[in-house]
Design goal:
By secondary structure, the protein is of the alpha+beta class. It contains 10 helices and 7 strands.
Length: 345
C-alpha cells in the first residue's frame, strides 16, 4: 500500500513551479498553432483569431494546472486509478467551463453565441490532448520508478557489501583480544554489529550527520585495533549542524578507501584528515589521506571506484543533479570532496 502511494505521488509533476508554468505556456502556444492549422486548411493567418484562441487555450491550460496542483495536496489519499480519473475529469470540466464563459462574455470570431457543436468539439479536443498528456505523465512516472528501482538495487548491493578482508581482520582482532583484553574485544564486537546493522538497512536512508559520524568512529575504532599507531585520524568539524541529512554509509566508505589505499599499504602508516563544514546552503565534506608513495614495504592497492559511484548515486537521488564530487592528488595527499545543497528547516 505504501509503495502504491509513493507511485501516485510520482504521477503529476509540480505544475505550479515557475519553470513548469513557462513550459505550459509554450505548450499552449504550440497547441494554438496546431488548432489554427486544423480549422484553416489554407492557413489564412489572422492575428485576431490567434490572440483569441491563445487567450482561450492559456486559460484552459493554466486553470487546469492550478487545479492539478490542488489535487497533489491530497494525493496520498488517492489510488493511481482515482488520480487518473480525477485529473482527466478536471481537464474536461475546466475546458467546458472556460469554453462556455468564452461564448457568453466574448463576441468571439470563433463562434458567436452559444454553439453546442463548438463546445462538444472543444471537449473532444480536450479529451484527446488530456489523454495524451496523462499518458505521457504515466510513462514518465514508470520510467522514473524503474530508474529509481534499478538505482536502489545497485546501491543496496553495494551498501550491503562489507569487504571480506575487513570482516576477517576484525574477527581475528576480536579473537586475539578475548583473552588479552576482554573489554576491548566486547567493544569491538558491538562496533562491528553496528556496522553490519547499518549495512543491512534499506538503501537511500537519510540519517543525521551526527549518527553517520558516530558510525564512522566505530569503524575507525576497529581499524585502530588492527593498525595501531599507524592510523592517525584528525577531525575538523566546522559549523555543520548535527541534524544535517546524509545518506547512511556515505562518509564511512570514504574512510575505508582512505585506509585501504593510503594507510594500510604504508609500513609507517599515515594520516587521515576529515573536514566537515556548512557554507552558504552547502554541506561540504572533504577527506584527505596521505599516500604510501615509494616507502619501503609499501603495498600499492588498486581501487575500482565502485564505492564512489555508490555515493554519487545516493546523493543525486536525494539532493538532485547539483551534487558536486571531486577527487585530486598531489602525489603525497589524496583528497575527496563532496558538496550538496541543504537548507535547515
Amino acid at each position: 500500500m505504501q509503495n502504491e502511494q509513493n507511485d501516485v505521488q510520482e504521477l503529476i509533476p509540480d505544475l505550479c513551479q515557475v519553470q513548469a508554468i513557462l513550459w505550459l505556456i509554450l505548450f499552449s502556444e504550440a497547441l494554438v498553432v496546431v488548432l489554427l492549422m486544423l480549422v484553416t486548411p489554407d492557413f489564412d493567418f489572422s492575428w485576431q483569431r490567434f490572440a483569441t484562441m491563445s487567450f482561450y487555450v492559456q486559460w484552459v491550460v493554466l486553470v487546469t494546472a492550478a487545479c492539478l496542483c490542488r489535487v497533489r495536496l491530497h494525493v496520498r489519499q488517492l489510488s493511481l486509478r482515482q488520480l487518473l480519473m480525477i485529473s482527466f475529469g478536471l481537464i474536461l470540466l475546466v475546458n467546458g467551463i472556460v469554453s462556455l464563459v468564452t461564448l457568453l462574455i466574448m463576441d468571439t470570431p470563433l463562434r458567436p453565441g452559444i454553439d453546442w457543436i463548438w463546445l462538444l468539439r472543444n471537449e473532444v479536443i480536450a479529451a484527446i490532448v488530456g489523454g495524451v498528456l496523462l499518458n505521457f505523465f504515466y510513462a514518465q512516472m514508470q520510467w522514473r520508478l524503474q530508474a529509481r528501482s534499478e538505482m536502489q538495487a545497485r546501491v543496496q548491493a553495494l551498501q550491503s557489501r562489507i569487504r571480506p578482508h575487513f570482516l576477517f581482520n576484525s574477527m581475528n582482532i576480536i579473537a586475539s583480544l578475548i583473552h588479552e583484553n576482554p573489554d576491548k574485544a566486547e567493544q569491538a564486537v558491538e562496533d562491528l554489529s553496528e556496522l553490519f546493522r547499518a549495512s543491512l538497512k534499506e538503501a537511500g536512508v537519510q540519517v543525521p550527520m551526527a549518527q553517520e559520524i558516530a558510525l564512522c568512529e566505530k569503524y575507525l575504532n576497529i581499524e585502530g585495533l588492527r593498525l595501531g599507531e599507524r592510523l592517525r585520524v584528525h577531525w575538523q568539524r566546522g559549523a555543520l549542524p548535527d541534524n544535517a541529512p546524509i545518506p547512511l554509509l556515505t562518509l564511512q566508505p570514504l574512510l575505508e578507501n582512505a585506509i585501504y589505499h593510503g594507510i594500510a599499504p604504508a609500513a609507517q602508516g599515515g594520516d587521515i584528515y576529515i573536514r566537515l563544514a556548512y557554507e552558504a546552503g552547502w554541506v561540504k565534506i572533504q577527506v584527505d589521506n596521505t599516500l604510501p608513495g615509494e616507502q619501503k614495504g609499501a603495498r600499492h592497492e588498486k581501487g575500482n571506484k565502485m564505492a564512489l559511484e555508490n555515493i554519487r548515486y545516493r546523493l543525486q537521488a536525494l539532493f538532485g543533479e547539483s551534487v558536486r564530487m571531486q577527487q585530486f592528488s598531489d602525489g603525497q595527499l589524496f583528497s575527496m570532496c563532496i558538496e550538496y545543497p541543504w537548507e535547515p528547516v
